[in-house]
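Just curious: can you write a single protein's sequence together with how it folds?
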Amino acid sequence: MKKFEEVKSLVAALEADADKFYNKGNSAAGTRVRKGMQDLKNLAQDIRLEVQNTKNSA
């Protein structure tokens, strides 16, 4: 459940940069959003593997 909380906090942290990129045209914020989304993807994959391993060991 700890990793799921990390996902939620990462999405919340990216919200300001997403607003800057989409509404204000700040390209540096777009770079931060892309990096954050890559981190989010990796974290989601870790969660998927953890769930699969827990399910299979039960």
The first helix runs from residue 2 to 24. Residues 14 and 33 are 6 Å apart (CA to CA). The radius of gyration is 15 Å.
